[in-house]
Amino acid sequence: MPSDPYAALGSARTRRIPVLAGNTFEEGKLFGSAIGAHRPSDRERFTLQYRFDPDRPGRLRVRDLVADPFLPLDAPGGWEEASEALTASVFHGIVERSMDTLVDAGNRNAYYYEFGWNEQPRPFDRVYGAVHALDLPFVFGNFRRNVFSYAFSRANRTGRLELSRLMMRSVRAFVHTGDPRHRGLDDRWDLWPRSMVFDAGRHRAWTCAGRFGGTYGAAASSDRRVACSP
Fold this sequence. Notes:
The protein is built from 8 helices and 4 strands; from the N terminus they run αβαααβαααββα. The chain is an alpha/beta fold. The protein has one domain. The N and C termini lie far apart (about 45 Å).
């Protein structure tokens, strides 16, 4: 980097630049190998994801993907707790500091979203959920064979495609106008520190307004999904 990133964000040059930032609810679940939580090597894990057939999941189990010290998933110190700590420590601090720096510098076009889709087949719905970068196939409408295609089944197709259309409309609006809002959203999307939550079930998608570090930003992902359900 040619300069300190926060100094760059806080400079006068950023005041007129519209910003759209976002996170998935469970970013940290992709990075379990950093704490020894994933049982396969990264090479084995990503190869498995690429080859996995979401319409014929077979007998793959949570235990095949998560190491014993992090089981049961919801036990104290288990995978849920450990991955939430990864999400908070690696991602949330960067988001808050970056967005706050922009706004403190006078930026009045800073928008933020949260992505909560978690309709993939077992065991990925528990091991990964709304994992890091899972929002990108939705933003680009790319549900072909890739490292995330383990998640894209015929059963979740209707809600998944509707959610993708909502997100693509927001990105398209932002690119053309600097504002990601459009009539298809269920709630008003206010500027940072407010956020817009994007989520879907198997048969429909929805959006709802939140606040980073508040109702959705600080709660467990399961609680946020309940709070944001239609």
